[in-house]
């Protein structure tokens, strides 16, 4: 079938909305008409080339929700008309990682930036002249309609607005899990969150829900500092130096119990600043990404070793998409998770590059593309 979607042809470059040909679903695949897709900074990292992809053209988008329009026989029992959220990280359910409650490290994820189906190397998407098109995370939610593996979708209740539900497919799960699962935040803790976008606003909410007494947001943009209070921040400051001092004031000079880095573009000095701001045995969760070729961190090894501090990497917040997508959406329905205020602006697909300009200009917590 014919669809439209946003692709990159080279890097650095710009997203281009073009006509595409889409295959019908095979067994254990479904076809989904997108209703909404979040605009995550990770997609822009592919546009700039900070995070390389396996081929070009490459169709972006990995934070979406929609309605199933075609469904082949599948082990999840998903049918036409079901509402689904795409999981940015697929889950096979039986590899070592899925079997040990680490679905975010599923072996299928090794192929999510390669482009083709991870089963046999064929392609679901082509240009109108027959050129294969790679799918980001195997899903490409910047397509009006997409065909995906059943391992990448989670069925949700039909009463949940899909423009809000899409956020849980990546940003909310990742930010929330960064604080709750990987930061090991406990009641009474003091937590710093560096960078208040989609991930940071979810990390703030996760820290407060876990019982943190002091949640300190750091962002140089005044609008984002003001927004941070909406998501549970007790303090909002412009610099990490201010945040570190506030953390010491609430911990008898010790420093933050945990710090989550969710800046738009990670630099090595961010990690060094974060490590200096946490207490002995404190945790720094590195959720943000930057240029993948960068090597080395300017951190004092003695502080890491002798203060028994922990540097923790993060993929998808170490969440379990099969369960956590619906768990987080149930919290939204119960008024325990604020998704509504995360959406600053909405865009049409043809305005996607303006949306990313707004993101980089600090105008959005999260932009969302709405499809017809």
Question: How would you summarize this macromolecular structure in one to three sentences?
Answer:
By secondary structure, this protein is an alpha/beta fold. Helices cover 26% and strands 26% of the residues.
Shape: globular
| Level-1 CATH class name of the largest domain | Alpha Beta
Low-confidence stretches: none
H/E element order = EEEHEEEHEEEEHHEHEHEHEHEHEHEHE
The pLDDT mean sits at 97
Descriptive key words:
alpha/beta, 2 domains, 18 strands, six-stranded parallel β-sheet, 372 residues, Rossmann fold, 26% helix, globular, Quinone Oxidoreductase, Chain A, domain 1
Written overview of the protein:
It is globular, with a radius of gyration of 20 Å. The longest helix is centred in the last third of the chain and has 13 residues, at 321-333. The two termini are 17 Å apart. With 372 residues, it is an alpha/beta fold. Strands 3, 5, 6, 9, 10, 17 and 18 form a seven-stranded mixed β-sheet that branches. The chain has two domains: 2-169 and 339-370, Medium-chain alcohol dehydrogenases, catalytic domain (Quinone Oxidoreductase, Chain A, domain 1); 175-314, NAD(P)-binding Rossmann-like Domain (Rossmann fold, 3-Layer(aba) Sandwich), CATH 3.40.50.720. It has helices at residues 41-48, 96-99, 162-165, 171-182, 198-209, 222-230, 240-249, 268-277, 301-306, 321-333, 352-360, and strands at residues 2-8, 16-22, 29-38, 58-59, 64-71, 83-86, 125-127, 132-135, 145-149, 153-156, 190-194, 214-218, 235-237, 256-261, 278-286, 310-313, 343-347, 366-370. It contains eleven helices and 18 strands.
């Amino acid at each position: 079938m014919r669809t439209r979607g946003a692709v990159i042809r080279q890097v650095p470059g710009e997203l281009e909305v073009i006509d595409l040909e889409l295959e019908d679903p095979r067994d254990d695949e479904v076809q989904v008409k997108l209703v909404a897709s979040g605009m995550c900074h990770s997609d822009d990292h592919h546009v700039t080339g900070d995070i390389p992809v396996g081929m070009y053209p490459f169709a972006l988008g990995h934070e979406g929700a929609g309605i199933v329009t075609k469904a082949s026989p599948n082990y999840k029992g998903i049918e036409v008309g079901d509402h689904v959220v795409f999981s940015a990280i697929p889950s096979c359910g039986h590899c070592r990682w899925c079997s040990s409650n680490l679905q975010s490290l599923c072996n299928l994820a090794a192929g999510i930036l390669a482009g083709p189906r991870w089963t046999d190397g064929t392609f679901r998407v082509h240009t109108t002249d027959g050129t294969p098109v790679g799918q980001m995370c195997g899903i490409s939610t910047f397509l009006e309609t997409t065909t995906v593996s059943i391992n990448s979708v989670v069925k949700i209740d039909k009463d949940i607005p899909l423009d809000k539900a899409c956020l849980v497919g990546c940003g909310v799960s990742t930010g929330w899990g960064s604080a709750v699962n990987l930061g090991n935040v406990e009641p009474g803790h003091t937590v710093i969150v560096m960078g208040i976008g989609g991930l940071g606003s979810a990390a703030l909410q996760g820290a407060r829900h876990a019982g943190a007494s002091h949640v300190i947001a750091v962002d140089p943009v005044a609008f984002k500092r003001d927004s941070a209070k909406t998501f549970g921040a007790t303090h909002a400051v412009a610099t990490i130096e201010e945040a570190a001092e506030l953390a010491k004031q609430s911990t008898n000079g010790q420093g933050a119990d945990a710090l989550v880095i969710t800046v738009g573009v990670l630099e090595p000095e961010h990690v060094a600043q974060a490590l200096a701001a946490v207490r002995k045995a404190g945790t720094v969760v590195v959720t943000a990404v930057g240029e993948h070729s960068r090597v080395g961190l300017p951190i004092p090894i003695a502080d890491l070793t002798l203060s028994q501090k922990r540097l923790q990497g993060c993929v998808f917040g170490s969440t379990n998409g099969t369960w956590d997508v619906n768990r987080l959406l149930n919290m939204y329905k119960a008024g325990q998770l604020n998704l509504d205020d995360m959406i600053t602006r909405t865009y049409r697909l043809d305005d996607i590059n303006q949306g990313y300009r707004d993101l980089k200009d600090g105008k959005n917590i999260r932009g969302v593309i709405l499809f017809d």
